[in-house]
Specification:
Elements: H1 7-53, H2 55-58, H3 69-79, E1 83-89, E2 98-104, E3 118-122, E4 129-133, H4 139-149, H5 153-178, H6 195-221, H7 228-237, H8 247-256, H9 296-305, E5 312-314, E6 323-327, E7 341-345, E8 352-357, H10 363-376, H11 381-406, H12 419-433, H13 437-459
Helix pairs in contact: 1-4, 1-5, 1-11, 1-12, 5-6, 5-13, 6-10, 6-11, 12-13
Length: about 450
């Protein structure tokens, strides 16, 4: 006959099982979470620092009249004959320089996808070249690369994705542990005395305060990962049905039987995102060769007629490329996601081939368009200050958790929980982790390893 345990006993054993998994996942996640939080803080601090260090390139003395953009373009082409111009950034203020993004000829066209670039700064009043730099080599860009891959490429990306998925489980289990039980207190087995009790209270208070913002940072940060972001969420969160071709382009495609091969991600550069997450996988419109070619000044005039203020101009890439004028938060053109807009122009007639607004994004695309700049602190000074505060609180939460582990009498895993609650918790966590495939695989490995070690320990004298 099976003995039925009292409800309070089952509850305490279930609590112990949850605490065990919270502990084990925390030991694995804390190093990664601290690196992400610390590098995120450095990214926030490096933004204003980069502006100060590059003030001589960014600011100019206000002159009488701005030179035409085509004149500035000719100056750049003369001084950089072995590079092709990919991007033009008009001055956003009277005392700001004009900028052109260049790529080596070997990376022009479709090969320019995520290729290295050089940013050239010019005085828009005199045409003087103020200098150039690799934007991916800036302090902010280097820290961002570490933040996204730990300087380990795809392997680092995968490790971070695993850690972030497990961190979500750690937060969920932590909230369960902190939730008041029927008697208003956690089970007696969770009570501690002495100095460690003080750190536990700090950890508990910080956890309640920062749990939701931390979940936001984790989920929005997953947008750029290779598996969860690029393979699972982004395809169905991207803007569909935005390919437009004129009759001549359709006829040419039918003759060659060649499907579109260029998407909006081709406007990105090494370490730099120029287009919103929601349209990166959306095909670009294409054109066919023609006699007339629009000049940069004409494109700038058309951008003004379209009502665009702060924007950047992407040059046609390849024989079927189009002019693109974009104003997005991810590129830093504007600080209001609702005002995002991407306009594609025929390179020969100036006809608007495609006009994408924020309202055209799917629900997930809108959520990401709003959350990514909020995650990066790009929505203004208030956003920057708020993120600095939140990141500091997250680091404090991580430190208190690490101190609780260090101050345990033994820093080994907690005692094995009862097998039934442990299985229940393992199943629940595995189901939750299925939202994050890499994390689910890692969690399954942890469960199997824990089971093997437990059996082995039971067989020992």
């Amino acid at each position: 006959m099976t003995r039925t345990l009292p409800a309070s006993s089952v509850s305490r054993r279930f609590y112990a099982a949850v605490w065990r998994w919270h502990f084990m996942i925390g030991v694995l996640v804390i190093p990664f979470l601290f690196l992400l939080a610390f590098s995120g803080l450095l990214m926030l601090l490096s933004k204003p620092l980069d502006s100060v260090l590059n003030e001589s390139l960014l600011t100019v003395k206000v002159g009488d009249q701005l030179l035409p953009a085509t004149v500035l373009l000719e100056t750049v082409e003369q001084h950089y004959p072995h590079a092709s111009v990919k991007l033009y950034l008009p001055p956003e203020a009277e005392n700001q320089s004009a900028r052109f993004s260049l790529q080596p000829h070997s990376h022009a066209g479709h090969g320019g996808h995520h290729a290295p670039s050089t940013l050239v700064y010019l005085n828009p009043y005199t045409g003087e070249i103020l200098g150039d730099k690799d934007p991916a080599a800036s302090l902010y860009a280097r820290i961002k690369t570490f933040h996204g891959s730990l300087f380990m490429g795809s392997l680092g990306d995968a490790l971070i994705e695993i850690a972030v998925g497990l961190a979500v489980l750690m937060i969920v289990s932590g909230l369960y542990l902190a939730w008041p039980k029927s008697d208003g207190r956690p089970p007696a087995s969770a009570k501690k005395t002495g100095q460690r009790e003080g750190w536990r209270r700090w950890h508990l208070s910080l956890g309640w305060l920062i749990a939701v913002p931390l979940l936001f940072f984790l989920i929005s940060g997953l947008a750029w990962t290779n598996i969860w972001g690029g393979k699972i969420v982004q395809p169905w969160g991207s803007l569909p049905g935005t390919t437009y071709k004129g009759p001549q382009a359709v006829q040419a495609e039918q003759k060659t039987a060649r499907p579109p091969v260029t998407d909006h991600a081709s406007m990105n550069e090494a370490g730099l995102h120029r287009v919103p997450w929601a349209v990166e996988q959306t095909p670009m419109p294409e054109s066919v060769p023609g006699d007339n070619t629009l000049l940069l000044d004409e494109v700038v005039a058309l951008a003004g007629h379209q009502g665009l203020g702060h924007y950047r101009v992407h040059f046609p890439q390849g024989d079927s490329g189009v002019w693109t004028v974009s104003a997005t938060t991810i590129a830093g053109d504007i600080d209001n996601p609702a005002g995002e807009r991407i306009v594609h122009l025929d390179p020969h007639s100036g006809q608007v081939l495609q006009d994408i607004h924020f309202a055209d994004y799917p629900v997930m695309g809108k959520a990401m368009a709003a959350s990514i700049p909020l995650h990066q602190g790009d929505l203004g000074l208030w956003n920057w200050l708020l993120n600095v505060l939140l990141v500091c609180l997250i680091m404090a939460l991580i430190i208190t958790g690490a101190l609780l582990w260090w101050k345990r009498q033994t820093r080994r895993a907690p005692p094995k929980a009862e097998i039934a609650p442990a299985r229940a918790v393992g199943l629940i966590m595995l189901l939750v982790a299925l939202a994050f495939p890499l994390s689910a695989a890692a969690l399954l490995g942890i469960i199997l390893l824990d089971a093997v070690l437990t059996v082995r320990k039971a067989r020992l004298p």
